[in-house]
Specification:
The structure holds two protein chains of two kinds. Chain A has helices spanning 3-12, 37-44, 71-86, 101-107, 139-148, 173-184, 206-214, 230-238, 297-300, 303-313, 331-339, 342-349, 399-408, 414-417; strands at 22-26, 29-33, 58-61, 91-93, 116-119, 133-136, 150-154, 157-164, 192-197, 223-225, 257-262, 269-271, 279-281, 292-295, 323-326, 352-353, 374-377, 393-396. By secondary structure, chain A is of the alpha/beta class. Chain A folds into two domains: 3-264, Aconitase, domain 3 (2-Layer Sandwich); 270-417, 2-Layer Sandwich (Aconitase, domain 3), CATH 3.30.499. Chain A has a five-stranded parallel beta sheet with strand order 4-3-2-5-6, covered by helices on one side. Chain A has a five-stranded parallel beta sheet with strand order 16-15-14-17-18. In chain A, strands 10-9-8-11 form a four-stranded parallel beta sheet. In chain A, helix 6 (173-184) links the parallel strand 8 (157-164) and strand 9 (192-197). Chain B is of the alpha/beta class. Chain B has one domain (6-165): Alpha-Beta Barrel (Aconitase, domain 4), CATH 3.20.19.10. Chain B has seven helices and seven strands, in the order βααβαβαβαβββαα. The radius of gyration of chain B is 15 Å and the shape is globular. Classes of the chains: A alpha/beta, B alpha/beta. The interface between A and B is large, with 52 and 41 residues.
């Protein structure tokens, strides 16, 4: 059986599960944010339970349009805040405690291998980077789970991603996943699990795995999952979570197919507008004059990402006419970046440092694009109009490529300028 | 569900991978009101789309309709905009669930999605399981939902289903 089916079977109290069958199982964590929680709370109100199933297993993060963008978004936050306080939700993140949800939860020690996590956010799949089964749903599904502690799922088929080799200096989890989405297409993994295995996984940092798992939804996948190896267990210990190792093994009965990815052969990848599957090597990207560069998000707003950006930006200046926006993903990352001197490098380069927010990634606020503008961003979606006007264009990359591009004003291989 | 009513309207054709950012751009996700969301339906694709549709019209998409974000506001905007149902070759997973939960009928029919042209007059009978293209005279059968999901729809959506179990 695939690792995903094993986790689901454990939750269903069954020895095995068959792909395609429908199951109703208990969940370990339920998540919503300031744009999906209001609708979930409204639907929750129609249910007889009245109380959340477990105040310690519901997580509410006000991260999308915060600090409040306008009156309507402020009202939405107020509505969620009232609910969180009324229900005594333990993991409610507001004000200075807000981090970008999928950066924040692992860091807060809320994620363990083998968990079932559902969230009203499509990038909930991020937690597969630590060996959890995690998937996004809509607000009504989350409302039902908040009330009952249960959800229904269709058991997915699985695809084994066999990772080999060792990545070059400026290649990491983001390049692995953009390349993979390029191979699969934006619906190549629909209803399926992407399970990462092979000797190359050890060469991808835990942050890089969270980045890769974050974007499996961009290939349509239900979830992505990495083994909880020694590296993952060390990361978890660092955030106060004791967990045993959990492997993902090739198994001829478990997987529909296998895809091989050799990290050694991989160059930094860029997804051209306007689909994440438009993957090309950074050296093959046509010349483009950039207006904006964004480094941050639930995909690449972690400390390792900011360190990488700083390594590229140190002693350099952002090109004239380019706005570089850097968004540390959580309060801890914000402080650590400051303490390490990364903020000096960013400010000296001429960057804008934003508080943790999803903001520009979804064209919300704090860096929306004008008509015809072009941006490179470390976020996860480059759909038409994603970051602003529908004639604006977004290229996706890792933080080092984004930083190098901010310096030159065009999409650049970091190896060329560092 | 509106299982015993015939849905009738004009077809509005879209290509593959119509994502939720096109259906309802994120900047409008500050309301849960279907009518309010419906004012911005497909704004990411065509800012004038709402002026081209009438109550009951039908969206016809390609592969992977509704991909991207988990926003339930997407099927709500489609409903609120007056669209009676969506016909597509295939759907993204989260969108499919959300549509069932908010009571927006989704029909998965690659055959119909290919054959129907922009502006065709359609009649959809969910109870009988048929799509009739009145412009071309062609008819298509609608595949049944999986039994489990049909139970949720028969209950009147997920909230009613959960209520019955509670």
């Amino acid at each position: 059986m695939s690792r995903t089916r094993r986790i689901l079977a454990e939750h269903a109290g069954r020895d095995s599960l068959t792909p395609g069958e429908f199951i109703e199982i208990p969940v370990d964590l339920v998540l919503a944010n300031d744009i999906t929680a209001p609708l979930a709370i409204e639907e929750f109100g129609k249910l007889p339970q009245g109380k959340v199933f477990d105040k310690d297993k519901v997580v509410l993060v006000l991260d999308h349009f915060t600090p409040n963008r306008d009156i309507a978004s402020a009202d939405q936050c107020a509505y969620v805040r009232h609910f969180a306080i009324d229900q005594a939700v333990s993991h409610f993140y507001d004000g200075g405690e807000v981090g970008i949800e999928h950066v924040l939860l692992p860091e807060e020690g809320l994620i363990r291998p083998g968990m079932v996590v559902i969230g009203a956010d499509s990038h909930t799949c991020t937690y597969g980077g630590l060996g959890a089964f995690a998937t996004g749903m809509g607000s009504t599904d989350i409302a039902a789970a908040m009330a009952t502690g249960r959800t229904w799922l269709k058991v997915p088929e699985a695809v084994l991603v066999n990772v080999t080799g060792k990545p070059h200096k400026w290649v990491g989890g983001k390049d692995l996943i953009i390349h993979l989405i390029g191979v699969l297409g934006v619906d190549g993994a629909t209803y399926r699990s992407l399970e990462f295995s092979g000797p190359g996984v050890a060469a991808v940092s835990v942050e890089g795995r969270l980045t890769a798992a974050n974007m499996v939804i961009e290939a349509g996948a239900k979830n992505g999952i990495f083994p909880a190896d020694r590296l993952a267990i060390e990361y978890l210990a660092g955030v106060g979570v004791n967990a045993p190792e959990m492997s993902i093994e090739p198994d001829e009965h478990g997987y529909l197919e296998q895809i091989d990815v050799d990290l050694t052969a991989l160059e930094p990848q860029v997804a051209l507008p306007s689909l994440p599957s438009n993957a090309v090597a950074v050296t093959k990207v046509p010349h483009v004059t950039l207006d904006q560069v964004v480094i941050g998000s639930c995909t690449n707003g972690r400390l390792e990402d900011l360190r990488q950006a700083a390594e590229v930006l140190e002693g350099k200046k952002v090109a004239k006419g380019v706005r570089l926006i850097i968004i540390p993903g959580s309060p801890k990352i914000y402080r650590q970046s400051m303490d390490e001197g990364l903020f000096d490098i960013f400010l000296d380069a001429g960057a804008i440092i934003s508080p943790p927010t999803c903001g520009p990634c979804l064209g919300g606020h704090m860096g929306v694009l004008a008509a015809g503008e072009k941006a490179i961003s470390t976020t996860n979606r480059n759909f038409v109009g994603r970051m602003g006007h529908r004639t604006s264009e977004v290229y996706l990359s890792n933080p080092a490529v984004a930083a190098a591009s901010a310096v030159t004003g065009t999409i650049t291989d970091p190896g060329e300028i560092v | 569900m509106t299982a015993h009513k015939t849905l009738a309207g004009t077809a509005h054709k879209f290509g593959d991978h119509v994502n939720t950012d096109l259906i309802i751009p994120a900047t409008h996700l500050v309301s849960n009101d279907p009518k309010e969301l419906g004012k911005h339906l497909m704004e990411g694709h065509d800012p004038d789309f709402t002026s081209k549709i009438r109550e009951g019209d039908i969206i016809v998409g390609g592969e992977n309709f509704g991909s991207g974000s988990s926003r339930e506001h997407a099927p709500l905007a489609i409903k609120g905009g007056g669209i009676s149902c969506v016909i597509a070759k295939s759907y993204a997973r989260i969108f499919y669930r959300n549509a069932v939960n908010v009571g927006l009928p989704l029909i998965e029919s690659p055959e119909a999605a290919d054959a129907i042209s922009q502006g065709d007059k359609l009649e959809v009978d969910l109870a009988a399981g048929t799509i009739a293209d009145k412009t071309t005279g062609k008819t298509f059968s609608i595949p049944a939902y999986p039994e489990f999901m049909q139970r949720i729809m028969d209950a009147g959506g997920l909230i009613e289903y959960v209520k019955k179990q509670s």
